[in-house]
Amino acid sequence: MAHNSTTTITATFGTREAADIAVEHLVQQHRISRPDIFIQANGKRNSAGSLPSGGDASHPGGVRHDAALEGDIEVSVEITPDKIPAVQRSLGDSGAIRVTGK
Fold it and tell me: What value does the mean pLDDT of the chain take?
């Protein structure tokens, strides 16, 4: 009997860079279709994350202050129950601050 239900897994990241890496792992390693992956600021304000990284950290005077570091980045994905352990592990390995399932 086929199992047609899906589960939403949500991971929170401190940087947009870590969220992007997690998405690439979901697509390439777990064969999850990009339309099933959602990325958004974890709150009402637009954000590149809550921690400096990449272009934010390599400014000659130190950390740039023009980036929208207003909150974490949230990545959510719809998956079948058989993928839950592998996807949760992959998100954690990609730098998730926390991973939850619904």
Answer: 81
